[in-house]
Design brief:
Layout lengths: L1 E2 L5 E5 L6 H9 L7 E5 L11 E4 L6 E7 L7 H7 L3 E6 L16 H15 L4 E6 L1 H12 L4 E7 L9 H5 L12 H7 L3 H11 L9 H11 L4 H10 L1 H13 L7 E6 L6 H7 L5 E6 L6 H4 L1 H12 L2
Parallel strand pairs: 5-6, 5-7, 7-8, 8-9, 9-10
Antiparallel strand pairs: 1-2, 2-3, 4-6
Length: about 325
């Protein structure tokens, strides 16, 4: 254990037996052994913990923040492609992965503050952002609140509450999970986390088989941890407040940093760019072929090339 300057944080280096799938990735890809986990710790204010992998090349390159609803392993192959030239920071979002499971604070405005605090402790003033799913929503809230801290912004295949055709999205019956949650729903899913999660991987993928058994088991174990499913539901149930907050942020002006909006060919497609043109002035559109929603798993090579080409400017 190595303490940082801030008394509210401490760092733990090395892999973690609680991440069996991630550990296997580190063993196959030695550059990913440069692991740092960040946790918030305060005697007077014991807030949520934020495990965070921070891969630093020598010398340290430009910082990239990777945010996803899944644990950060979802971006592992993309991170591996970037780690030799960039500092990659991949925190577990509030309540997800190995982060602690606080009772509240799942609105994306609050979570953007979580990310700001992580960057402050790591001494990162400005970074590129690469986000997916719920990560898009936290990333947008961060970019709108702290525009000077985001150099370039990549959003992957998920809408933003309150932005563009959001009402149309919420009325889609296949998005029933947005309103799913609460003690009774938690009891329904308790012990059946894998069944619940398989639905997302099977229905939102063009190639469900590419979300392999190892990943499925890994995420099912994470969501079986005490409080994990409650926190996952809370991410969705915060959407009405997120929509209110995002409309207020947008009223102050659109994002001005370059934005790359990526959609899976069989998922969001060009709609991702349509959404972001409501919220940003400089939007590039890209579609990942032969892929559904889980594009970093379904077509990692095409995704990686799009992201690297956009960031290396």
């Amino acid at each position: 254990m190595q303490r940082r300057r801030s008394p509210q944080f401490f760092l733990v280096s090395g892999t973690d037996q609680q991440r069996p799938y991630a550990t296997s990735l580190y063993e196959r890809h030695p550059p990913l052994r440069r692991l740092v986990r960040l946790q918030r710790h305060s005697r007077t204010r014991p807030g949520p913990a934020f495990p965070c992998r921070s891969f630093r090349p020598r010398p340290a390159g430009r910082a990239i923040v990777a945010l996803s609803k899944a644990a950060p392993e979802a971006h592992a192959l993309l991170e591996r492609a970037l780690v030799d030239t960039h500092t990659v920071i991949a925190p577990d979002l509030r309540g997800l992965g190995l982060s602690s499971k606080p009772s509240g604070g799942y609105d994306k405005k609050t979570q953007s503050g979580d990310i700001a605090h992580v960057l402050d402790v790591l001494g990162v003033d400005r970074a590129d952002f690469v986000t997916h799913d719920i990560g898009n929503m936290v990333g947008y809230a961060f970019a709108a609140a702290y525009p000077d801290r985001v150099r370039r912004f990549v959003l992957i295949d998920a809408p933003i509450p309150g932005i563009g055709p959001w009402e149309q999205v919420t009325q889609d019956p296949t998005m029933w999970q947005f309103g799913f949650g609460g003690p009774d729903m938690e009891r329904l899913v308790d012990g059946r986390e894998r069944i619940y999660l398989d639905r997302f991987w099977n229905e939102y993928s063009l190639h469900p088989e590419r979300f392999d058994e190892g990943k499925r088991q890994h995420y099912a174990e994470l969501y079986s941890m005490p409080g994990a499913m409650r926190a996952g539901f809370a991410q969705f149930r915060a959407f009405p407040q997120d929509a209110i907050d995002n409309k207020a942020l947008l009223a102050k002006g659109k994002l001005t940093m370059p934005v790359l909006a990526i959609g899976g060919e069989s998922a969001s497609g060009s709609m991702m760019a349509t959404v972001m043109r409501f919220a940003a002035e400089n939007v590039e559109e890209a579609i990942v072929p032969d892929s559904g929603h889980w594009i970093t798993e379904e077509n990692p090579s095409a995704t990686t090339k799009l992201v690297i080409d956009f960031l290396n400017v």
